[in-house]
Design brief:
This protein has 780 residues and is an alpha/beta fold. 43% of the residues lie in helices and 15% in strands. The structure holds a DNA duplex (15 and 10 nucleotides). It comes from Niabella digestorum.
Length: 780
DNA sequence: CCACACCTGATTTTT
DNA sequence: TCAGGTGTGG
C-alpha cells in the first residue's frame, strides 16, 4: 500500500481510492476533508492521471494554496505545479482571459470589484433619472448579483411573473431595466464583475461547443471543495465540464452551508445524486479536531435544524472542558474579558497568541477586541477589513494602470481624470459623459477627439495633456514590464510626489502603501513561480486581473504568532486551540436581518455550529448586556442559541481573566439572573454609575466645546466696488475685499490655473483668497 | 474648481 | 460611528 494511505480511516480511504465516476463526500467538521482531497489528488496522480488533467476548485485562495502545498508535500516532486487548483473565480478568469473575445469582451477585460460594480449601478440609476433613495445602489447590486448567480438573465428577469410581482411589491418596478442597463454598461466598459466571471464562463461553454469540448478534455478529473456553498451558476458549470468523463468529486457538509445570501443552495448537494446514474456517497463522521464536549454540543445545536443529510459526528478525543458561557456588562467589557483571559491562558497553559481566535458575527464588533488587545500588548491580526488593494491611494494608482490596459474602463477613467487635479472638474466630466452617451462612444473616445466637441480652450488644453500622457503610458506597454510601467506612471502623474509631500500620518502611510504596491508588482514580475503550470503571463493586464481577486486574508500570514480576529464566515475551514465566540446576543447573532424566515434562522444556526466546531480544546461563548450599535447604546437579550446548548456541556460560572476584571463584569449565571430569564436588573444608568462611563468617549458634550465663533467683522464695500483683473493682484498691493475689507497681499501661491493670494486683512486676519472666484479690488 | 463643514442615513455574512 | 452627499465660501 502506498505511504500516503497510511493514517487514513476506513471511510477516508474509500473516498480516496474511488477514482472513476462521480463521488460525493459528506465531510463533517474536522473530519479530515482537506486531507482526503489532497490525498485523493495524489492518488489520482500516482495512478497515472496527468496533473494537467486535474481541476480542483475552492472558494478561497487560501484553501487553494494550502491544497497545492499539501499535494506537493505528499508527492515530493514538482508535478503538483501542473495541477489546475484555484478558486472558481480565479480559474475562470484565467480561462476567460484567453477566450473572452468570443463573447465580445476584450481579453484584457477589467474585473470590477464590489465597489466598482456598485458605482456602475449608481451611474446607471442616475442616468435613468431614478430616485436613488428608492433604488439604493447596494440593494440593487445585491439583487442583480442574486439574479446572475441564479443564471437569470435580464431578459428572464423582465419576463418572470413572480420576480416582477416581487419588485412591484417592493416598489421598484424599474429593476429589470436597471439590471439590463447595468449589464450593457459593464460590457461597454469592457468589464466583468465577480458574478460575470462565473456567468460569462458558463455562456462561453454553452455557446461554443468547441470550447466546451476543449475544457472537457482538459479537465478529466474535477474536484470541488465546499460544495455546499456553490450557487446555481457554479453548479451548471461543473455539470457541463464533468459531463464527458463524469469524474466529478464534490466535498461538502450541508451543516456548514453558510453562504445562501450569496446564492449558494443546498439543492446542489441533493441534486448531485440525481444527476448521475451511480453516485458513490461517502460520509466522514469521525472528528479529529475537537473534544467530545464540543462535538456533543455542536451535534445538539445542529439537530435543531430540519431537513439535513443524516449524520452524527463523533470523536475519540478526550471529553475535555466544558464550554464557558460568560456574560459581560458591555461590549467593551467583553473585549477586556477576552483579552484578560487570553493573557491568563497564555501564562497558565502556555498557549501562544496564535492558538486564540476571536470570532464574531459582524465585522463592526472587532473594535472592542482590538482596543482591549492593544491595551495588553497582545499582537493580533484582523481579517476582513478592506484589502490592501482596496485602499484609496492604491486604487488610484491602479486606476491609471487599468485605464491604460483598457481605455473603455470608465470607472477607472472617472476616478483619475482629475486626480491629481489638472483642471478637469465636475462640469467638464459631466459634459464628457453626456457626449459619450449621446454619441454612443466611450468617455475615452470623447477625450481623444476632444477638439471636435467644443470645449473651452483651457479645458481642451488640460484634456489634451491628459490624453497625451495616458497615450505615452500605453506606448510603454509593449517594451516595459508591469513594474516599470507602474513606476513610471506613479512618477509621471505626480501621484507619488503628492503623497510624499503630505506630511500627515495618513499621508505618510499612503506614501508607504504606494511604495509597497510598487514593490509587490516588482516582486510579482520577478518571481519565477507560475500559477497553474502553463505559460507565465507577466503582463500588466494579467497582474491587474489577478489582484482584484485577492482578499485581505491572502495578504496575511496565517502562521504569524498573533491572535486572530475574524467573522465566523471567514473562519470556515480553520481551527484553533482556543476559540471565543463573541456577541451571542439576539439581533446580533442570530442577526436581526436573518430572523424572519425559518430558512434564515437555520442558516444562522449553522453559523453557530461552524463557530463551535472551530475550537479544538477550549471554547468560550460570550455576550454583552449593553453594546454600542451605530453610535448609541442598546441593551441585548442573550442569544437563543445559548439556550439551545444542553446545560451539561456548559460552565456558566467561569470567572476567567485577571482579578481586575471581576469588578467589571458579572459572570453570566447568577441564580437570580437565570431565574429572571437571563439578565440582571441593572439599568444602563446603574451600570455607568458602577463601572464608569464606557470608554472611547471622543465627543465632548456640546455645552463644553468652545464654539470657535468665526467673527467676520462687517465690511461694507465702497460704493461702485469693481473687482480688478487677476493680473493686477501682486505682492505688496493694498486691496479691498467685499466682505473682509482692506488688507495687504503678502504672498502669491497656487497653480497657474488656480492662483491664490495670501492676504493680511486689517480686521479679519490672514486669509487665502482664490483669485478666480473671490472679488478683489486693488486700492489705488 | 475645491476644501471643508455639516447633515444624513445606514449597518450581515464575501469571491 | 462613520462614510458619503450636499452646501458654502474662498
Amino acid at each position: 500500500m502506498q505511504d500516503y494511505l497510511q493514517g487514513l480511516n476506513e471511510r477516508q480511504r474509500e473516498a480516496v481510492l474511488h477514482i472513476h465516476g462521480p463521488i460525493m463526500i459528506i465531510a463533517g467538521a474536522g473530519s479530515g476533508k482537506t486531507k482526503v482531497l489532497t490525498t485523493r489528488i495524489a492518488h489520482l496522480m500516482a495512478s497515472g492521471v496527468d496533473a494537467f488533467n486535474i481541476l480542483a476548485l475552492t472558494f478561497t485562495n487560501k484553501a487553494a494554496k494550502e491544497m497545492k502545498e499539501r499535494v506537493e508535500h505528499i508527492l515530493g516532486n514538482n508535478e503538483a505545479r501542473n495541477l489546475y487548483i484555484g478558486t472558481f473565480h480565479s480559474v475562470f478568469a484565467r480561462i476567460l482571459r484567453a477566450d473572452a473575445h468570443r463573447l465580445g469582451y476584450p481579453n484584457n477585460f477589467t474585473i470590477y470589484d464590489t465597489d466598482d460594480a456598485k458605482s456602475v449601478v449608481k451611474t446607471v440609476i442616475n442616468e435613468m433619472h431614478l430616485d436613488d433613495k428608492l433604488y439604493k445602489p447596494a440593494t440593487v447590486y445585491n439583487r442583480i448579483s442574486a439574479a446572475k448567480n441564479a443564471l437569470v438573465t435580464p431578459l428572464d428577469y423582465a419576463n418572470d411573473y413572480y420576480i416582477q410581482q416581487e419588485d412591484m411589491r417592493a416598489n421598484r418596478p424599474a429593476l429589470a431595466k436597471i439590471y439590463d442597463a447595468y449589464c450593457k454598461r459593464c460590457f461597454k466598459n469592457g468589464a466583468m464583475d465577480f458574478d460575470d466571471l462565473l456567468l460569462k464562463f458558463y455562456e462561453l461553454l454553452k455557446t461554443f461547443p468547441d470550447l466546451l469540448s476543449k475544457y472537457q478534455h482538459k479537465f478529466k478529473f474535477i474536484l470541488i471543495d465546499e460544495y455546499q456553498d456553490t450557487n446555481p451558476a457554479q453548479y451548471a458549470i461543473i455539470k457541463m465540464l464533468g459531463a464527458m468523463h463524469e469524474n466529478v468529486c464534490v466535498v461538502g457538509d450541508d451543516a456548514q452551508s453558510i453562504y445562501s445570501f450569496r446564492g449558494a443552495t443546498i439543492q446542489n448537494i441533493l441534486q448531485f445524486q440525481k444527476d448521475y446514474d451511480d453516485v458513490k456517497v461517502v460520509k466522514l463522521e469521525q472528528n479529529y479536531r475537537s473534544t467530545q464536549n464540543i462535538i456533543n454540543a455542536a451535534n445538539s445545536v445542529i439537530s435543531k435544524n430540519k431537513g439535513q443529510i443524516p449524520k452524527v459526528l463523533f470523536t475519540e478525543n478526550a471529553s475535555g472542558e466544558k464550554i464557558k458561557v460568560v456574560k459581560t456588562m458591555s461590549d467593551n467589557d467583553e473585549g477586556k474579558f477576552i483579552a484578560d483571559t487570553i493573557q491568563e491562558q497564555k501564562l497558565r497553559n502556555h498557549f501562544a497568541n496564535k492558538d486564540f481566535a476571536i470570532l464574531y458575527r459582524t465585522n463592526a464588533q472587532s473594535r472592542a477586541f482590538e482596543e482591549a488587545l492593544r491595551r495588553l500588548n497582545i499582537p493580533y491580526t484582523i481579517y476582513g477589513g478592506i484589502s490592501f488593494y482596496q485602499r484609496k491611494e492604491i486604487k488610484d494608482l491602479l486606476a491609471y494602470l487599468r485605464l491604460i490596459i483598457n481605455t473603455k474602463d470608465e470607472e477607472a477613467l472617472k476616478r483619475i481624470i482629475n486626480y491629481p487635479t489638472r483642471g478637469i472638474g465636475k462640469t467638464t466630466v459631466d459634459k464628457i459623459i453626456l457626449l459619450a452617451n449621446t454619441h454612443n462612444i466611450t468617455m475615452w473616445e470623447v477625450l481623444e477627439n476632444a477638439p471636435q466637441f467644443g470645449f473651452r480652450s483651457g479645458t481642451l488644453e488640460a484634456i489634451n495633456e491628459f490624453v497625451t500622457m495616458i497615450k505615452s503610458f500605453i506606448s510603454m506597454l509593449g517594451k516595459h514590464n508591469a513594474y516599470e510601467v507602474a513606476f513610471h506612471v506613479g512618477k509621471q502623474t505626480n501621484l507619488v510626489k503628492e503623497l510624499f509631500n503630505d506630511k500627515s500620518t495618513e499621508g505618510l502611510q499612503k506614501y508607504e502603501n504606494i511604495q509597497e504596491l510598487l514593490n509587490s508588482i516588482k516582486e510579482w514580475v520577478e518571481s519565477p513561480d507560475n500559477e497553474e503550470g502553463e505559460v507565465v503571463d507577466k503582463t500588466l493586464g494579467a497582474y491587474l486581473q489577478q489582484i482584484t481577486l485577492l482578499t485581505d486574508a491572502d495578504e496575511k500570514d496565517p502562521d504569524a504568532d498573533t491572535v486572530k480576529l475574524m467573522t465566523i464566515h471567514a473562519a470556515k475551514g480553520l481551527e484553533f486551540e482556543c476559540v471565543f465566540a463573541a456577541g451571542l446576543e439576539e439581533m446580533l447573532f442570530p442577526n436581526v436581518m436573518s430572523i424572519n424566515t425559518r430558512e434564515e434562522l437555520e442558516e444562522e444556526r449553522r453559523l453557530f455550529y461552524v463557530v463551535i466546531t472551530r475550537a479544538k480544546k477550549k471554547l468560550w461563548i460570550t455576550y454583552a448586556h449593553t453594546r454600542y450599535k451605530f453610535g448609541s447604546l442598546v441593551q441585548n437579550e442573550p442569544s437563543r442559541f445559548i439556550e439551545e446548548l444542553p446545560e451539561e456541556f456548559l460552565d456558566r460560572t467561569y470567572a476567567g481573566g485577571g482579578t481586575r476584571l471581576l469588578s467589571s463584569f458579572s459572570p453570566g449565571g447568577s441564580a437570580f439572573d437565570r431565574l429572571n430569564g437571563g439578565w440582571g436588573q441593572d439599568t444602563v444608568l446603574d451600570a455607568e454609575r458602577k463601572y464608569g462611563p464606557p470608554p472611547s468617549k471622543k465627543t465632548t458634550p456640546s455645552y463644553l466645546s468652545p464654539k470657535p465663533e468665526p467673527k467676520v467683522k462687517e465690511h461694507t464695500p465702497t460704493p461702485g466696488f469693481v473687482a480688478s483683473d487677476v493680473s493686477e493682484i501682486q505682492v505688496g498691493k493694498r486691496v479691498e475685499h467685499q466682505k473682509f475689507g482692506f488688507g495687504e497681499v503678502i504672498k502669491m501661491e497656487g497653480a497657474s490655473h488656480n492662483p491664490m493670494a495670501l492676504i493680511r486683512f486689517e480686521h479679519n486676519g490672514e486669509k487665502k483668497i482664490l483669485l478666480n472666484y473671490a472679488k478683489l479690488r486693488v486700492v489705488e
